[in-house]
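Retro notes (design track)

What went well: tokenization of the new backbones is finally stable.
What didn't: we kept losing track of which sequence belonged to which structure.
Fix going forward: every design gets posted as structure first, then sequence, in one message. First example under the new rule, 703 residues:
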């Protein structure tokens, strides 16, 4: 046995830091034993490939390589590998994550074609995996994932000396990645889910599998083992994260118990690593990860029930009305019912592009993985679930759904009682807000993450949500710079905690009535900036209920009870997926939602208002209406009726809708129903969308 070799200075320092002073003697004895080759452990050697397949001829892509879409995916893989042949893997300035992706494609091209030119280049990449640039902690995760897959696929071609050297290098890289997860045990409180840890934990599971037979025969100074790495991707990810001090699984930093991501659109940051890991775990262990860890399945299917009836995603938080069809990359792991549901969902998404190029299409991003796992499902029936609405007290997002047609009713309702660890979602201050879709259009939308035009408020503040605002008549709040208003929204919290939790009191889901009843105690409102709160002089008890009788119409019931007088406002955000897109970032270049607004019986020219100036209309009414044309070309009449009748104020502001890019950040009218000063307010709002050919429902006040 030879002594330690190819040990980086960084690895030695990390190992030394990991030791406690009183263990030094034990360490020296242990090192001596390793150098003498005494007591070396053994493990049964793996036969490669083993992570995703055992023989490339077993994979759907290889079996259908002359057919579309597999032929296109294969062509893309080979093209990437051909580009990699021209790359210099000894370049220390080349990002390690990019290196590893090219190495992965080289090895896969070798498996597909048998061309040893690809294998030789993949071998070169593996032997130089420690030379690239690692600018971020997550760079180690990207490198570990790509090089693990590359090694698995090219290992049968390697000579014994190269194989041994590569295994040592990959183990060293994995050990460094493991160390970084909590800085060797010295940083137990830092978790950055979407930017780092949510990508790193699945990658550690993959390398733990591919090196599960690694016994460190050359005595490298490693502070972790393959079994540790596997535990990161399983127990620590799904059961309890022992690398940090929160006493929760890492998955709880990114998803609720029903699989909905807290981060909205940033789910895409962790998808690739999750998809690879779910496939590797299931094949390597011959056990479906969706059965062993059911939250994994929930994460992969949440778009089915939380998306709008047209299958585009909702506008919650940082999300946008994009299309997601990544489910094909794990389709083989679903049971037959969910295969039918998810295939149907993705088929609809992939055949729809009426919102334009700004919507995101994800299926082909994962062409490598789908080539290896996506079967021919052309003969499998597509169908919708028998259930419609989705209520669960374990989720912050409740979904009312009238049906699965493009023009069915749909309403999302946010009830947040999770701690919260990131400003990406806490700072949106969207507690007890809702979105409403009907007649093929999103008619009351959340503001999303506006970050391209004008002030770029990123969807913070109460005005970006269909919620309630509060004025203090005794000590008026200052005029906000973000909305020219003395009204303030509920302070939900910030990245280090939750300030205003909301709770579900009752849920009803029957054929004749659906209802979710919630409550919260409001003690703080948004202060001078989204990150600061301002305490109220006394708490306000707030109850908001959404009812959906006979799947016919929605009613929003607000009950606000205080011990002092307040001026309560309801803010509504009339919208449409029919927009005039923005062409630039200045006010004159910002587009708008295409709606005609009527307040009471008076047509109102909201588009001529100055940007961000709160404007009293001089009208007191129960009723606002807007007309639009939905993306399918059908005219829609929307009527919002709210009692008690209130003073109406309007502000032309910005929303993100009908996509996620600059073009989708457009003007809309914020409409405030401003009640008279009172201790208690009881408000009922009904949402009545219809086609002009349908009979109009006429609401009226009843004593």
């Amino acid at each position: 046995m030879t002594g330690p070799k190819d040990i980086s200075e960084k690895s030695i320092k990390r190992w030394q830091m990991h030791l406690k002073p009183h263990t030094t003697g034990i360490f020296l004895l242990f090192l001596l034993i390793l150098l003498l080759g005494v007591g070396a452990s053994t493990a049964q050697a793996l036969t490669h490939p083993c992570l995703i397949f055992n023989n490339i001829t077993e994979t759907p892509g290889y079996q259908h390589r002359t057919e579309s879409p597999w032929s296109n995916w294969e062509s893309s893989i080979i093209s990437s590998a051909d580009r990699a042949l021209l790359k210099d893997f000894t370049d220390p300035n080349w990002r390690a994550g990019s290196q590893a992706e090219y190495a992965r494609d080289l090895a896969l091209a070798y498996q597909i074609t048998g061309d040893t030119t690809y294998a030789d280049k993949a071998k070169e990449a593996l032997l130089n995996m420690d030379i690239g640039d690692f600018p971020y902690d997550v760079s180690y995760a990207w490198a570990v994932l790509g090089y693990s897959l590359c090694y698995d696929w090219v290992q049968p071609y390697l000579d014994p000396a190269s194989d041994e050297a590569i295994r040592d290098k990959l183990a060293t890289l994995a050990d460094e990645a493991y160390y970084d997860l909590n800085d060797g045990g010295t940083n137990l409180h830092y978790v950055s889910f979407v930017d780092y840890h949510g990508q790193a934990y699945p990658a550690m599971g993959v390398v733990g599998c591919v090196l599960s037979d690694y016994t460190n025969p050359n005595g490298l100074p490693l502070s972790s083992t393959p079994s540790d790495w596997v535990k990161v991707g399983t127990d620590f990810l799904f059961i309890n994260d022992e690398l940090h001090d929160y006493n929760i699984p890492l998955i709880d930093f990114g998803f609720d118990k029903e699989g909905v991501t807290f981060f909205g659109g940033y789910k895409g940051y962790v998808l690739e690593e999750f998809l690879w890991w779910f496939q590797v775990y299931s094949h390597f262990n011959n056990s479906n990860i969706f059965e062993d860890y059911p939250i994994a399945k929930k994460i992969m299917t949440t778009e089915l029930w939380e998306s709008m009836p047209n299958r585009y995603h909702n506008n919650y938080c940082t999300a946008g009305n994009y299309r997601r069809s990544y489910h094909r990359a794990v389709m083989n792991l679903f049971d037959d019912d969910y295969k039918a549901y998810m295939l149907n969902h993705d088929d609809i998404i992939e055949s729809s592009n009426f919102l334009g190029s700004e919507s995101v299409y994800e299926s082909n991003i994962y062409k490598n993985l789908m080539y290896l796992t996506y079967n021919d499902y052309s003969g499998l029936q597509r169908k919708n679930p028998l259930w419609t609405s989705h209520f669960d007290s374990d989720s912050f997002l409740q979904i009312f759904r009238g049906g699965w047609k493009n023009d069915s009713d749909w309403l999302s309702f946010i009830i947040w009682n999770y701690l919260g660890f990131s400003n990406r979602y806490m700072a949106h201050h969207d507690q007890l807000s809702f979105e409403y879709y009907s007649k093929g259009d999103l008619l009351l939308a959340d503001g999303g993450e506006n970050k391209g035009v004008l002030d770029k408020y990123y969807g913070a503040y109460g005005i970006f949500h269909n919620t309630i605002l509060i004025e203090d008549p005794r000590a008026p709040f200052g005029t906000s710079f973000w909305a020219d208003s003395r009204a303030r929204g509920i302070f939900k919290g910030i990245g280090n905690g939750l300030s205003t939790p909301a709770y579900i009191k009752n849920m009803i889901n029957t054929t004749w009535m659906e209802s979710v009843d919630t409550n919260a105690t409001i003690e703080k409102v948004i202060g001078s900036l989204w990150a600061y709160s301002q305490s109220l002089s006394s708490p306000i008890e707030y109850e908001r209920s959404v009812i959906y009788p006979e799947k016919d119409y929605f009613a929003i019931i607000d009950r606000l009870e205080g011990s002092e007088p307040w001026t309560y406002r309801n803010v509504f955000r009339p919208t449409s997926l029919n927009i005039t897109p923005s062409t630039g970032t200045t006010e004159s270049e910002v587009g708008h939602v295409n709606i005609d607004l009527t307040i009471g019986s008076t047509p109102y020219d909201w588009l001529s208002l100055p940007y961000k100036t709160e404007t009293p209309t001089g009208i007191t009414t129960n009723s606002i209406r807007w007309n639009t044309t939905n993306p399918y070309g059908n005219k829609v009449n929307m009527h919002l009726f709210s009692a008690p009748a209130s003073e109406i104020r309007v502000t032309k502001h910005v929303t993100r809708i009908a996509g996620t890019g600059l073009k989708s950040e457009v003007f809309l009218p914020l409409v405030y129903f401003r009640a008279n000063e009172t201790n208690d307010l009881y408000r009922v709002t009904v949402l009545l969308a219809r086609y002009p050919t349908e009979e109009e429902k006429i609401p009226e006040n009843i004593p």
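Added context from the reviewer: The first helix runs from residue 9 to 18.
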